[in-house]
Amino acid sequence: MDNYTDLSNMIDPELKVSDQNDHIEEEKFLNNPIVTVGPVTKQYLKSVKNYVTDGNRFVFSDGSSKVQISVISDEIIRVRMAPQGTFLADFSYALQEFAHEITSVVIKETPHEYLISTPKVTCSIAKETFLISFLDEKGRVMNEDARPMHYEENVQFGGYYVYCSKVCTDTEDFYAMGDKPTEFNLRGKRLVLWNTDTYAFAKNQDPLYRSIPFYIGLNEGRSYGIFSDNTFKTHYDFAVERKDRTSFWSDGGELNYYYIHGPQMIDVVKRYSHLTGTHAMPPMWALGFHQCRWSYYPDQKVKSIARTFREKKIPCDAIYLDIDYMNGYRCFTWNNTYFPNPKQMLDGLQDIGFKTVVIIDPGIKVDDNYWVFKEGKANNYFCRRCDDYFMEGNVWPGRCQFPDFTNPKVRTWWGGLFKELVETGVDGVWNDMNEPAVFGSGSFPDDVRHNFDHHRGSHRKAHNVYGMQMVRATYEGLSKLQKNKRPFTITRAGYSGVQRYSSVWTGDNVASWEHLKLANIMCQRLSISGISFCGTDIGGFTGEPDGELFTRWIQLGVFTPLMRAHSAGDTREREPWSFGEPYETICRKFIELRYKLLPYLYSAFWQHHKYHLPVVRPVVMLEPEIHINHYREDEFTFGEKILVCPILEAGAVNRKVYLPNGTWYNYWTQQKYKGGKEFVISSPLDSMPIFVKAGSVIPEAPVMQYVGEFEPEVMFLKTWYTDKEATSLLYEDHGDTFAYKQDIYLEKTFRVKGSNGSFTMEQKMEGLYTPRYEKYQHTIYGLPFKVRHIEVDGVEIKRFAIDEQGVLEFSSTKKFKKIEVLA
User: Fold this and answer.
1) Would residue 179 show up in a list of annotated catalytic residues for this protein?
2) Which of 64, 117, 359, 408 has an alpha carbon within 20 to 30 A of 556's alpha carbon?
3) What is the mean pLDDT of the segment spanning 530-555?
């Protein structure tokens, strides 16, 4: 078949025979639903014999297999297939509790199909063929089976391989799927989900660190999502083998997927996060700049790095300790030679505004004199193989055993192990090597047994959730130990839902311009895959960036939700000052911009947490109906209001920028542009194209060297004129506690509107939190008239200033309700 040979190394050998003979099955399955080619037997669903109803669940049978159709909400429908008629226990690590809304559900039978309908979507089950399709409220097909769901027995392990094939139209494109290092549009890609340690990964290398079995289909401006909640190794084909279909199949478990209706792409992402959750509000300091290296040691080196940040007045909030802070790489210990008094060191860092984040890996050294190993061994907390021997493998400490994080008792134990680190002054935890990675073998053998929260399973089932359950244990342990302080965690591996417990980074990347481009794409992809709190190793983990590449990466990093520089120990150091001038000054300028924008970014996180909106949004999400945007991948919005156009080419001093429809302002020059077309924008090294949507109110803070350095006396509100109506949001709370869950927060909505000779701004406030500052300092750009009169809540403001470009500045109380600016 076309392209088959080139892709054969991407799939398991036992799948190749059946894949090679898809064309044979295509001809036969309707007449003979059992198709045998060589040693492989695939069985397709036959015609529907009957169905039963159980509330919003409907179970259809072909006489031997069963398919359950469940209405989860007006826009989400779940499909499960039990090959031999018995469903597995209904359990998921991905899902969260959520109050889904179901308005009504109606089932209707016609001569040829069953129709299950909500006000938004209809699921059709064809009687003769068991083909399933989904239609919107206007009866338009959004997604449909190309052939019936099918399965084949796994004679080696038991259970079944399960398959689903969907029709792919000529105009359909695909997105999401987590951290894949490839073009943003996934059409023409074949991918595997199997968490893998991929040091210095290359473009198009697959698989990578995370498994996010969720994709978005976009066709003629309308979107839907497919979330296949199966933790086994899973394969996706986006119109590779055949241009008229997409397929996904798993090496075990059930065929269990959710159809998520749009029709807008952002609606699909929101509803996916209704299923799998959003990030909790991070501590404000975690949104600052982080400095990391493998490794900073001894303690004098750590102190020197911290002091240099403060001396050079380059803002920074967190410094990381990699594996060399441990005693022989034993987790939860300190190397007393390098760090003879860790509490004193951490207290000193805290005094100058630094939070400390330490690495913790899952491998526990086999050493009967090591307290963590002794506890784990005594309580039977480590993973065992099928013959009951402990699973062992070599990682950094040497010979190790590994906790079974799918056991709730183990997670509780693991979370409690952080007590001494927390008491010493550690603020955050970095979980690494948790794919899980093992030197030599790559990962655990398939026959390792896991508790799986009492649902039992081999490593084939638990592999993709191992890292997620490790960071879950970490997050839940820190939540208990840090006494109403929000934990900060970062993980390398994960599965759908990991965002409820952690931030992520894109792994061990390379210092190259190609990887700078990949960083841009991968963060956009992660964001629309439900993982907004993401970033990359700024400058590249391995390899040697020059000053230009590092500086351009810093500029991009300002607009990734997690902003962390990190590098390997065999490379030159790469702090913001490492490349001398002019790079140091430019890096300082952009890191300061990050700190100015923290109120805006924090508000965007609130919109993610509460309203399920992604923080980073690709251009195709803004204008999906414009087909060329399906392939735009180098621009994105940061939150809703700021368009970011990073410089991704060496030596570039300008770049072509596409501005979506509407009016946009250049953040630096305030020049106004009419969108819907491309412009060439000057971009010398000390600049990067950044645009603000007309009508935006962007809150900015005074520059601090670290979050909480001082209490600001004023909040800066920057507003860009529009002749239409627009709203913006500012969210505030304590910044590091869970009080927001008891409504101790303040959500402010600014509504602006311009007309001939006037501009108004109204403020509405909800919540119980009171910020300490008393004033807003207003700056309004782009006013098309000469200002003669300003009123705040009906009282004239006599003190205001207008510069040569017509930029207006004045101050008001933070509690104003209405401002009027008049010609």
Assistant:
1) no
2) 359
3) 98
